[in-house]
Design a protein that fits this description.
By secondary structure, the protein is an alpha+beta fold. About 20% of the residues lie in helices and about 40% in strands.
Length: about 220
Amino acid sequence: MKKMMIPKPSVQHFFSILILGLFLPLAAWSQSAQNQKEARQIFDIVYNKVYGPQGSTLHYDVNIIGILKTNGTIWIKGKKSRFQEDRYLSWNNGVKDYWVDMKKKTVTEYDADAPRSDKYMSKFTFNLEDYIYSVDKSPKYYYVITLNAKKDVKGIKHLKAIVEKDTYTPKSLKIKVLWFWTTVKITNFKSGGINDNIFVFPKDKYKDFKFEKGK
């Protein structure tokens, strides 16, 4: 994911505001620069709580423009990951990635580092350096962190994260890719204490499924 709320302005509108800001007094510009710095620092803390070596887990409810809705639980630790939904489950031990389709009763095995030809998921690529950050600290209990993509950045164009002030726990995300918005509600977040055994694929449990190699 390194290479993963409230509507936001377009990239073009954001840069027009930035240009106008050049004509404001220096004190106003310094405050804006400080806001960007603080926003990035807060976002880095949250990012490391999720993707740091200690690992993390959370439950998610996803809504893509009201058309696609899904929910599940995910575990992450270094190169290892696991997720489970009603139909799909996955165990990635850092070497092999097993995808289970409960409806088709299939298990597809991939090399963990193999590139995927999934055009939909490729639009959710994310690089921390591709964005301009800002933060609204006025809510009493939450930070509202906004990320606007720099010029010509592909994938995620805007992202807004709601984060608890005391614990830096992520509560929700709103993401814009191309013309559509994806809303992610986050609950049951836990950082650390993730046992490596949770990423081991329970092959015997699916011995009656059809096994196949992913392309």
